[in-house]
Specification:
This protein is mainly beta and about 550 residues long. The chain folds into four domains: about 170 residues, Glucose Permease (Domain IIA), CATH 2.70.70; about 150 residues, no CATH class; about 110 residues, Chondroitinase Ac, Chain A, domain 3 (Sandwich); about 90 residues, Immunoglobulin-like (Sandwich). It is built from four helices and 47 strands. Strands 1, 4, 5, 6, 7, 8, 9, 10, 11, 12 and 13 form an eleven-stranded antiparallel sheet that branches. Strands 16-26-25-18-19-21 form a six-stranded mixed sheet, with no helix packed on it. The protein has a five-stranded antiparallel sheet with strand order 28-29-33-37-36, with no helix packed on it. The longest helix has 19 residues.
Length: about 550
């Protein structure tokens, strides 16, 4: 009889072999492909939707269309993918190019004209299929560091056009040199009631007093870089039978946040690294993993949890692979032992139910399905005005709502917002809506919360009255520093001689870059800039500029 894992591999591989034969993209860059990030890599609150390709530490490298097609979408944003280009191809795929410095000249002019016509600084634009047709190898953009990028690189995706689901680009023949095995960097076991956890090493024997799950910390490196990237597949076996698989070949944006169920979130909070659960939580619809129900005299495996009969010894193995098939393996043993008496049974929140909680002046609503499992939820007042709600150790799939009643001394005030501190004390500002004495805030995190006021308008200053060149662009720009010490820059606009001028917001460098329209003549002109923070404090500045 064929091995279960072999059958699964054949079934999963067949559709992608067909895809590769019908769509064979060329490399998007003229330089060797060296990766700083792999497909479906474990990231904060999401799986990585593509591959990150190094651009030799610089911006402005030529980006080519990987196949014939047309420009279906252009996205301009200070966040996320920054400047991004979407090309649709007749084979049924869409390629995505993110963090761009600039688009090719004809497209750049159209983008600037469209945004200016709409009086918008950023947004999504959808040209018709006939407007910007491209051919394989054609210049379409220049690489950059826009949006949420922390260094110059190209974010590249291949999506199924019909479903918009990203697919693993390496399965389409893009070559990345890789002869290195994945690394097994940490092993943990977790009791099914989540009341106990421990570390172990390959070859160890673990006394199992209850059902246990295994948590694996693994990364992979390619030949030409030492970035700790994600792996391609994981397989776990008990007594020669597969009970868990993870295959990072296709993701869905609508379920990507369920990564917080895929990883051991408690370990992430405690250690800052993402261990993959080789078992499933109750609230986890991801299709990346599969578990198999196994029953034998010595053990039982259900949803990845392994229960071992008393005095029985079973062997557990796991294999981790990268796309090139480089493999790392480990094994250990579970020995069935007498169950220990139960300890304390703390109050927990059922993930399937709505919860209405009260903490001082705060009403808390946690909807059904927001939690990934029935979980302990810390709730207490920590010093004056500091409210612990989940303490940052509990991840949320959907928003919880905090209705915060202002006291008599706070009601006359304005500019109220919340500081949310995670389990490490790192703070971020949350703005809300006010109705009478009640402020309503929504968050998909947990932590420690404190009410504060932002009464100071943003600081805005023009760096110089003349323009700067824009890299890889036919346009020039004016640059202003814009900073806010609490709730951050939320909205902004600029007008030159009372005509709209588009702004690129580089939030990482607290910089507003005003693109100067080409139809404004040389000479002295009036520049008016409006910058608004998260609670509405507004700065209005006017300058005389020289073009």
């Amino acid at each position: 009889m064929l091995n279960r894992s072999l059958i699964l591999g054949l079934l999963l591989t067949a559709p992608f072999l067909q895809a590769q034969s019908s769509f064979a993209p060329s490399p998007p860059l003229d330089i060797p492909l060296v990766l700083s990030g792999t497909f479906a890599e474990l990231r904060g609150n999401h799986f990585h939707g593509g591959i990150d390709i190094k651009t030799q530490g610089r911006s402005g490298i030529r980006i080519n269309a990987v196949a014939d097609g047309y420009v279906s979408r252009v996205a301009v944003s200070p966040y996320g993918y920054g400047n991004a280009l979407y090309l649709r191809h007749p084979e049924g795929y869409t390629t995505v190019y993110g963090h761009l410095n600039a688009f090719y000249p004809e497209l750049e002019k159209w983008v600037e004209d469209q945004l200016r016509e709409r009086s918008k600084n950023d947004g999504n634009l959808y040209p018709s299929p006939e407007q910007f047709k491209v051919t394989r190898g054609q210049l379409v953009a220049f690489s950059g560091n826009t949006g949420g990028s922390m260094g110059p690189h190209l974010h590249f995706e291949i999506r199924d056009t019909k479903t918009e689901e990203p697919l693993n680009p390496l399965e389409f023949g893009l070559e990345v040199k890789d002869t290195r095995n994945p690394e097994i960097r940490g092993l943990k076991w977790t009791a099914k009631d989540f009341g106990d956890m421990g570390s172990f090493k390959a070859g160890d024997t673990i006394n199992a007093t209850s059902a246990l799950g295994i948590d694996l910390f693994t990364t992979d490196k390619q030949d030409l870089a030492n970035n700790n990237n994600g792996v391609y597949s994981i397989e776990a076996i008990v007594q020669g039978q597969v009970f868990f698989t993870a295959n990072y070949r296709r993701i869905n944006f609508s379920t990507s946040r369920f990564i917080n169920a895929h990883i051991n979130y408690d370990l992430y909070c405690a250690q800052g690294v993402r261990y993959t659960r080789l078992y499933e939580l109750e609230n986890n619809p991801l299709k990346i993993t599969e578990t198999y129900e196994l029953t034998a005299p010595a053990f039982r495996a259900s949803k990845g949890w392994i229960t071992v009969a008393q005095d029985s010894l079973v062997k557990v193995e796991a294999r981790v692979k990268d796309y090139e098939g480089n493999t790392s393996e480990f094994s250990f043993y579970l020995k069935g032992d007498v169950a220990l008496p139960p300890g304390k049974n703390p109050i927990k929140l059922d993930w399937k139910k709505d919860h209405e909680l009260t903490l001082g002046s705060v009403q808390i609503h946690i909807p059904a399905g927001a939690l990934y499992k029935t979980d302990e939820f810390n709730l207490f007042v920590k010093g004056e005005g500091h409210y612990v709600i989940g303490e940052g150790w509990v991840a949320l799939q959907t928003h919880m709502t905090l209705d915060w009643t202002l006291d008599s001394t706070q009601i006359p005030g304005v500019g109220w917002f919340l500081w949310e501190a995670n389990h490490k004390g790192k703070k971020s500002a949350i703005t809300g809506k006010r109705e009478g004495a009640v402020m309503t805030f929504k968050t998909r995190s947990t932590g420690t919360y404190a009410l504060d006021q932002d009464l100071k308008k943003p600081e805005v200053s023009l760096l110089k009255t003349t323009t700067y060149p824009r890299s890889n662009s036919a346009y020039r720009e004016l640059r202003l520093r814009a900073a806010d010490d609490k709730t951050g820059i939320d909205r902004y606009s600029a007008r030159i001689n009372d005509q709209f001028a588009r702004i690129d917001f580089d939030y990482k460098n607290e910089m507003l870059k005003i693109i100067v329209p080409k139809d404004i003549p040389a000479g002295s002109h009036n520049l008016r800039v409006v910058v608004i923070d998260g609670v509405g404090n507004t700065s209005v500045e006017e300058y005389t500029i020289t073009l």
